[in-house]
Give the backbone structure.
Amino acid sequence: MYTIDLAYVGRGLHEELVAYIADQEGYNADEGVHVALRDGCSWDEERLRRGATIGLGRALLSRLTDGIPWVALNVNTCSPLFWFLARPGPTSLADLAGRRLAVHAPHTAPGCFARIVLRRAGLDPDRGIHTIVRPPGDYGMDLRRLHDGSIDAALVGSTMAPEAVAAEHGWQMLGWVGDHFQIPTVGVAVDPTYTDPDAPAVQALLRAHRRALQVIRDDPDTTVRHMHAFLGRHTEEEVRAHYEAFIAPHYTTDGGVDLALGDGAITAVAAELGVPVTVTAADFYRTVTSHAWEPG
C-alpha cells in the first residue's frame, strides 16, 4: 500500500469534507493508499510543501508571493465557504463601513478573499472598516464577541452553518464569499520539488477524492450524515439545508476546473496582494479535466 501525507490548512467542511468522505467510505483503502491527514494550519510553507495539501488558496498565495511551485491536481469547489455574519444593524456588506469586523489576516487566503469582496462592495478594508485580525479557528470566540457586542460582524468559516446561527440569535448573514468571488479554493495540491504529481500515491489519492465528490453530488443522505460529524451543534434539518444551499450545487463531480475562471481569480488575488501575476491557471491548475465548470 502507498502512503501520503495530506494537510489541511483551515478547519471545517470547506477543507476536510472530501478527504473525510474518502476515508470514511473506504475509498483510500480501495485505491491502495494510506492517507495521513495532518493539521497544517500552523505549519510554515517549508514544512507544508513536503506533502500534499488541501488548501489551494494558500498554495496559490505562496506561489505568487514566495515562488513555491505548487500545482493543483484536483479542485473540490470554486465557491469559498466563508460568510459575513453580523449583529442586528447592518443589512448589507456596504453597511459595514465604520464598523468592527473580525477577519483573517490580509496575507491569508480567506483574509485576501474577504478583502476582494469588501472592495467589490465599495469598502476600503484598510480605512473604511475597523478590522480585528484573528487566526483561523472554530470561530467560537467570534460568536462570543458578537453576543457581547465587542464586534459588529465576523467573517466565519464552515465550522458552523452560519445561516442557522443567524436565525437562532436574530443576527444577519450579510453575504457569502462564494456569491461574490469564485476561485478554485480546496482540492489537492503538491510541490513537484518534493512530490511527483504522477506518483502512484498521488494518483490513488486523486481517484479516492473524485469518488468522494461523486458521493457529494449523488448521495445526499450519506453526505449529510458525514457533514453532521463537523456540524454537531446543528439539527439534521439544518445540516441538510446547508448541504442543499452551499455544498451540492457548488462542488465539482470530477475535480476539474474552468481555466478562464482560474485566470480571473489569480489576477484578482495578485492585485489584492500587490504582486505581479507570475503564473497562469493552465500552469497552476493541472487537473485531469479542464473545462467550463458551472455550479449545478
